[in-house]
UniProtKB/TrEMBL annotation:
It holds the Pfam family p450. InterPro entries: Cyt_P450 (IPR001128), Cyt_P450_B (IPR002397), Cyt_P450_CS (IPR017972), Cyt_P450_sf (IPR036396). Keywords: Heme, Iron, Metal-binding, Monooxygenase, Oxidoreductase. Signal peptide: none annotated. Belongs to the cytochrome P450 family. GO terms for molecular function: heme binding; iron ion binding; monooxygenase activity; oxidoreductase activity, acting on paired donors, with incorporation or reduction of molecular oxygen. This is Cytochrome P450 hydroxylase.
Length: 401
């Protein structure tokens, strides 16, 4: 496609299909300034530039490195400026980042995550058993409850508190950036939720990650703000992202009957199919904010200290110079890996967990319902208006008996 001006970068049409705009940007303005409410940001859309930005030692993840305009615009607020929620690894650089990451990385190794496969299967089977009648919404009925159950199990969030957590988290993850007041209220709620949870773990320790972090905090290995911030990051990052992978991924598959039939004929293709889902229409639109600490040139553009930088993972993952025929859903691609989980020091710590959950959820629903089909025109589906995430509000299907 080639048009003279860039298709809109905001609004329902963009949310429904952002890829024509990304194609235009990659061709005509691969590293460009885009207007946001209250400030401008650099948007990086080509794969090679995206990798450079994600791994650049002079691009800081610390919100304190952001320009005064970015900070005044409240774009990261209140999440990036509340010590009890913001002092986690994704906002840290260098030694601080490594220390915070090391505190939890042992919990998320691929081997430990494989150990959770049986639990993911048990939860999924229970959710599928509950489906009643011929119609279902695979976002509400499967994609939401599975990841929240698993991450809450891991962290030790009591069953009775999970609905409250889910309500607060979904505001933060799927709200538009402009809904600042709504986000702020939900953030207040989450701050209180986490502080109550830490108090609970102090008085009633369990066999869970949060109890372990509380113990480390008593030993002085982690500041109390880092403790609540880490719990916050893991709960949020470990939840909505996987919801979107399962929802977007199932949609992609249901829209590609040949690939669906190939998978049904040979379920050993599932890991390749999930990997292609992450490239083709992954859950994370843009990587989190980065800020140059000195002048930096990427894609021929000079970025100044403090300039906010967004890396479009969705755009980079459709770059034709890396992925031949990039708009085709084509599991089993060889060559460069996609950027769905990021790249470099902040590469997703939960990648193995997300893949296990998606494989279990998608494999199980397809095995149980051989005639599964979309129950709506894909053009009618509503997407989250979030600037960070790409996910579906619902995925109506016919189960087909
Ligand atoms: C399909 C699901 C997921 C996707 C697509 C995804 C994607 C990403 C991406 C793109 C980043 C890098 C962000 C950046 O560099 O700005 C990231 C980081 C991170 N993810 Fe995930 N994620 C997923 C699931 C999870 C899960 C299940 C967890 C937790 C258990 C998790 C925890 C994290 C954490 C803690 C980081 C920060 C790592 C660091 O700063 O060193 N993610 N994720």
């Amino acid at each position: 496609m080639s048009t003279d001006s860039c298709p809109p970068l905001f609004g329902p049409a963009f949310d429904a299909d952002p890829y024509p705009a990304f194609e235009w940007l990659r061709r005509n303005a691969p590293v460009t300034r885009v207007p946001l409410p209250g400030c401008e940001a650099w948007l990086v859309t080509r794969y090679e530039d995206a990798v450079e930005a994600l791994t650049h030692p002079s691009l800081s993840k610390d919100p304190a490195s952001g320009s005064p305009e970015w900070r005044a615009a409240s774009l990261g607020l209140p999440l990036d400026h509340r010590p009890s929620l913001a002092r986690h690894m994704i906002n840290a650089d260098g030694e601080d980042h490594s220390r915070l990451r090391r505190l939890v990385s042992a919990t998320f190794t691929p081997r430990r995550m494989e150990g959770l496969r049986a639990r993911a299967q048990e939860v999924t089977d229970g959710l599928l058993d509950r489906l009643d009648g011929d119609e279902a919404d695979l976002v509400a009925d499967l994609a939401y409850p599975l990841p929240i159950t698993i991450i809450c199990d891991l962290l030790g969030v009591p069953e009775e508190d999970r609905d409250a957590f889910h309500r607060l988290a979904s505001v933060i993850d799927s709200a538009a950036a402009s809904e600042v007041e709504q986000i702020s209220l939900a953030t207040d709620g989450l701050e209180k939720f986490l502080s109550d949870l830490v108090t609970l773990k102090r008085t009633r320790p369990g066999d869970d990650l949060l109890t372990e972090l509380v113990r480390r905090s008593h030993r002085g290995e982690i500041h109390p703000d880092e403790l609540t911030s880490t719990a916050f990051l893991l709960l949020i990052a470990g939840h909505e992202t996987t919801v979107a992978l399962i929802g977007n991924g199932l949609l992609a598959l249901l829209r590609h009957p040949e690939q669906l039939a190939a998978l049904r004929a040979d379920f050993s293709l599932l890991p390749d199919v999930v990997d292609e889902m992450l490239r083709y229409d992954g859950p994370v639109r843009n990587a989190t904010w980065r800020f140059p600490t000195e002048p930096v040139v990427i894609g021929g553009q000079r970025m100044l200290p403090g300039d906010p930088v967004l890396v479009s993972l969705l755009a980079a993952n459709r770059d034709p110079s890396v992925f031949p025929d990039p708009d085709a859903f084509s599991p089993g691609r060889i060559g460069e890996p996609h950027l769905g989980f990021g790249r470099g020091p902040h590469y997703c710590i939960g990648a193995a967990l997300a893949k296990v959950e998606a494989e279990v959820a998608i494999g199980s629903v397809l095995r149980r319902f051989p005639r599964l089909a979309l129950a709506t025109d894909p053009g009618e589906l509503a997407w989250w208006p979030s600037a960070i995430m790409r996910g579906l509000f619902s995925l109506p299907v016919r189960l087909g008996g």
